[in-house]
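Hi V.,

Quick status before I head out on leave. The structure for the redesign project is tokenized and pasted below; the design run finished overnight.
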């Protein structure tokens, strides 16, 4: 009986010593190796311990912080070409109608009405000068690129437009070269007296053919063939009338301008040449 008890005591002491030894070894190993490297393939670690002894949980594997990937390079947008508007000057004949003129030049009646700012299509007079947008009209909006206007050679009562080279857009001028400024806007809000005054500065002659006067509501006045000489000036009247070398008429049925509005003048190449804020 005593022999059996001694065997049991020795076994318990052996188990305690084995557990303590494993615990000390694992603690020393963990302090020297705080984390496990992450292997590319799973690894199996077999630890033999005395039955009944709970081993400490293995340390978490080391995971290296991944470098943030560089943001994708933005693909530059392809610049959109500037739309071009080609105008042909045509003089109305006795047998002409807007429909026949539109059919002759293969454009829509609406485009002719818009370019020439005609509100009543029935008021078409013999000898009246119309500007025909060859190839159709791109209606400008606040977000769209202003079209480049290239006037074609002047046509006088011709049935078919005569092909020929179009003049290039006017360059940006500076110094003593010919320029135009918007001097003032008079009669704002009154159709009978409302007009924009343009004045020439600098030296030389300056053609205003196919230039555009715009407001902030999308209304556009396109200039006919007109040359401003040194020291010259011209009025652009909102009301109807007959054009002269110093008086141009928009032929509108209502006033266009209002206080605080920006008046912009673009040349035939779509370049802003002058602006004026109405007081």
């Amino acid at each position: 009986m005593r022999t059996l008890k001694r065997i049991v005591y020795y076994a318990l002491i052996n188990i305690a010593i084995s557990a303590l030894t494993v615990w000390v070894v694992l603690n020393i190993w963990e302090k020297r190796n705080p984390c496990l490297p992450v292997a590319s393939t799973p690894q199996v670690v077999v630890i033999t311990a005395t039955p009944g002894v709970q081993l400490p949980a293995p340390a978490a594997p080391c995971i290296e912080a991944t470098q943030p990937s560089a943001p994708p390079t933005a693909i530059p947008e392809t610049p959109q070409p500037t739309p071009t508007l080609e105008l042909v000057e045509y003089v109305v004949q006795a047998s002409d109608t807007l429909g026949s003129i539109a059919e002759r030049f293969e454009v829509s009646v609406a485009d002719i009405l818009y370019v020439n700012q005609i509100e009543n299509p029935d008021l078409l007079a013999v000898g009246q000068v119309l500007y025909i947008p060859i190839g159709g009209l791109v209606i400008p909006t606040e977000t769209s690129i202003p079209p480049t206007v290239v006037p074609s050679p002047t046509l006088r009562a011709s049935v078919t437009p005569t092909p020929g080279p179009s003049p290039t857009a006017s360059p940006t001028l500076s110094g003593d070269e010919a320029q135009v400024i918007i001097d003032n806007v008079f009669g704002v809000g009154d159709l009978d007296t409302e007009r924009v005054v343009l004045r020439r500065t600098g030296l030389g002659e300056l053609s205003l053919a196919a230039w555009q006067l715009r407001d902030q509501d999308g209304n556009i006045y396109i200039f006919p063939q007109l040359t401003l000489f040194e020291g010259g000036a011209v009025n652009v009247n909102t009301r109807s009338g007959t054009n002269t070398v110093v008086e141009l008429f928009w032929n509108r049925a209502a006033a266009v301008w209002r206080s605080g509005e920006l008046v912009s003048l673009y040349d035939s190449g779509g370049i802003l040449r002058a602006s004026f804020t109405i007081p």
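Above is the designed sequence. Residues 153 and 164 are 7 Å apart (CA to CA).

G. will cover questions while I'm gone.

Best,
W.
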